[in-house]
Structures are given as structure tokens and as C-alpha cells.
Amino acid sequence: MINKIFALVSDAVDRKFLIIGSVIAFFGVYLGILFFGENSILTYVSLRSEKENLTNKIIELKNSNAMLQKKYFELKQQNRNKSDS
Predict the structure, then answer these.
(1) Which residue from 29, 30, 1, 2 is spatially nearest to 18, judged by alpha carbons?
(2) Residue 42 belongs to a domain
């Protein structure tokens, strides 16, 4: 099959252009997959941004949890004081 393609191309210069064109096409497809595929750079950037948002949310929830635990223990202590009286 490749020999038939090369047979159609008569001149050596035409063969060079065919090879160079094939390499460029392959490289273009490779770059397309690299930028827009399932494991692409865009996916990486999106996941990195999502990780940052989730990390901030974790910090926020830990602070909220600490405040709620403090309130809980204060209320628990007040109930002990009332029951001891």
C-alpha cells in the first residue's frame, strides 16, 4: 500500500513533502490529544483548580467544626453546673 503511494509520487521532492506532511499531521494529532484528550493539560489545570477550592473548603469546615465543638463543650459544662446545683 505504501509502495503504491510512493509509486504515484514520481519525484523525490514530492516524496519529501509527503513524508514531511505525514510527520506534521501526526504531530498535529498528537498535540490535539495532548491539549484536549482525557489526560490533557486542560484537565490537569481544571483538577488543580478544583483541588485548591476543596482545600479551602476543608480549612473552612475545620474552623467551623472547632467553633461548634467549643460551643458544645461550653453547653455541656453549663448543663453539668446546673445539675450539680
Answers:
(1) 2
(2) no
Report how far apart the first and last C-alpha atoms of the chain are (Å, whole number).
98
Answer whether residue 80 is part of any domain: yes
| CB neighbour class for 35 (10 Å; exposed up to 12, middle 13-18, buried from 19) | exposed
31 and 56 share a domain?
no
Q: How far apart are CA 60 and CA 45, in angstroms?
A: 23
Q: What is the pLDDT of residues 55-81, one digit of tens each?
A: 999 999 999 999 999 999 999 998 888
35 contacts 42 by C-beta, under 8 angstroms: yes
At residue 55, the pLDDT reads 98
56/46: higher pLDDT: 56
CA distance 70 to 75: 9
What is the domain range of residue 18?
Answer: 1-36
Structure letter (DSSP) for residue 39 = T
